[in-house]
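Troubleshooting log. The previous structure file for this entry was overwritten by mistake, so regenerating from the original sequence record. Sequence copied from the archived sheet and checked twice against the printout by T.R.
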Amino acid sequence: MIFQKLILGVARMDETIKIGFVGSKTEDIILYISRILFNMDMNIAVMDTSEQQLLKYSVPESIPINLLTSYRNVDFYIGCCNKENYKKVDISKYNVIIINFGLNPAFVKELMSCSLRFAVTDLERSSVLRLKEYLEMLDCSYEFIRIYRDVVDSKIDKSYLDSLLDIATVVKEYYFYISEKELCCRLDSQYNDIFRFSGLPKEYSAMFKDILVDSLSFNRKDVEMAIKKAEKGK
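Regenerated output below.
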């Protein structure tokens, strides 16, 4: 089984866990997860290998040193959209590294080496079909957690979307309707130096808990405590 349940030590992990995101509208989810893991005393890095490099607009402006920008004790590596810069990052010193691949075809092999993979899209046709094209580049049916965002009730229903993206094996799936509260949190994550996401719909918190407990085998109480701290902006 390619996607395996990972057993993580509370104090320190022997190997760096790589979590990969592909698709669109991933940046805020990456930030939320990074804050939760930080509050679990994990040494975290976030790397953006996407072509669009949207993640840098959610990190307060600073002068990067060798691609590195430190933001609230989490290391962000911006500008890693080519292999030369990607190889400069020493990921071995981190417990967890979260990689935003976007839809960059140059990093398909790196995505396949991740322990946990997310495929994220809204319902825009361009988003869905571009994700479909990307997943078709994989050399076999790798396993993903799939997230549909900004969902509205329309003739374009879930079964139709699933048929378009029936390429990768889906081990978990989350389906989030468009929400003004969620959009406010998303915007806060882009504009505020310290953002709080206590107003995020409960479905998102449930997803974070589900992923960290069931998929990565963290202690449930530790996860719940870390989520509460992160929601308050810690």
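The CA atoms of residues 182 and 200 lie 5 Å apart. Archived copy saved in two places this time.
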